[in-house]
Design goal:
The complex is a heterodimer of chains A (66) and B (261). By secondary structure, chain A is mainly beta. Chain A has one helix spanning 18-24; strands spanning 2-5, 8-11, 33-36, 39-41, 56-64. Chain A has a five-stranded mixed β-sheet, with no helix packed on it. In chain B, 35% of the residues lie in helices and 15% in strands. The chains are: A mainly beta (66), B alpha/beta (261).
């Protein structure tokens, strides 16, 4: 299943939740935020949201900046 | 020593003692970032929001080094060129769990990094309606500052000079007008180069100063962070003390009577 994660094309298995994707990237429990198809997805909804073909995920965190 | 040398100020419902807000960009590493913030005495620290690098994972995280319980984390929208992108960035920042305070910047030009005033106002309106406490980076334009205050921003943050230029306050007269007309804090953001620039901002009556490159770009960032703290404190104390009037001619400091003859 084709999904875009942070602008990169990814081939993911069917039936994964957003929480699964976040965990597979080693980001579970980290201070990150997720945008799902251009809308912020609250952390409470990560588990109940199933990733579908051609979805776009943005996973962001804080970096140094002014 | 006079009592209450340091007077606090209120920003978005919280009191702060330090009038120096610092960025976290351009440091050699997170440890230097942490030490510089500590030396600056800052209580509010800006950060940027960026994509996690999903191919090179396991990198240390900025907020492992800067404790959000100790500092107020102020996410920015640096790099955003449209109101829409800035709003998206703020929504994500809030979701990442550091509160609703945001530094709004919508850039209008790559070379000068001057803000797009119209887009900044547009984004501010949306963010305020969504409950954000918005601190907008803006040109030193009294009318733009007025508009931003009217629509509910918690401070206005006029630039001293272009971001990262270190040119100091290019238009102190505009800054004075902005201070005079504003009932929200005026925080000079961007363009400060050295401690005397920070002092000038506070002497003019600014509530606070926000800087990044002036500290991170110094040869010795930790020493400069300390210098900036002193500059800000000196400027604020001088402002409150009320400076003497300027005169064209001399007035003697020693008595003019009982001289030897």
């Amino acid at each position: 299943m084709h999904v875009r994660v942070n602008g990169e094309d990814k081939d993911l298995g069917e039936g994964l939740s957003v929480a699964d994707v976040v965990a597979s990237l080693g980001l579970a429990g980290r201070r990150v935020a997720v945008e799902y198809n251009r809308a912020v997805l609250r952390a409470d909804d990560w588990t109940s949201t199933t990733v579908r073909e051609n979805d776009a995920l943005e996973i962001v965190h804080f970096v140094g900046g002014g | 020593m006079p009592k209450d040398i340091f007077d606090s100020f209120e920003l978005a419902g919280r009191n702060y003692r330090s009038r120096l807000l610092v960025g976290t960009g351009k440091y050699a590493d997170f440890e230097q970032t942490r030490l510089a913030i500590e030396a600056s005495g800052a209580e509010i620290v800006t950060v940027a929001v960026r994509r996690v690098n999903i191919t090179d994972r396991g990198k240390p995280n900025l907020l492992d080094h800067i404790d959000p319980k100790r500092y107020t984390i102020l996410p920015n929208t640096a790099g955003c060129y449209t109101a829409d992108d800035a709003v998206r960035t703020c929504r994500l920042a809030r979701e990442a769990g550091v509160g609703k305070l945001v530094k709004l910047e919508v850039i209008g030009d790559e070379k000068t990094l001057f803000p797009d005033v119209a887009a900044t106002i547009e984004a501010a309106r949306v963010l305020v309606s969504e409950g954000f406490d918005v601190l907008p980076y803006i040109t030193d334009d009294p009318v733009a500052c007025k508009r931003l205050e009217e629509l509910g921003c918690k401070a206005v943050m006029p630039l001293a000079a272009p971001i990262g230029s270190g040119l100091g306050i290019r238009n102190p007269y505009n800054i004075r007008i902005i201070i005079e007309q504003s009932s929200v804090p005026v925080i000079v953001d961007a363009g400060v180069g050295t401690a005397s620039d920070a002092a000038v901002a506070l002497e003019l009556g600014c509530t606070a100063v926000l800087m990044n490159t002036a500290i991170a770009g110094a040869k010795d960032p930790l020493l400069m962070a300390h210098a900036m703290k002193l500059g800000v404190d000196a400027g604020r104390a001088a402002y409150r003390a009320g400076r003497m009037p300027k005169r064209l001619y001399a007035t003697a400091s020693s008595p003019l009577t009982d001289l030897l003859s």
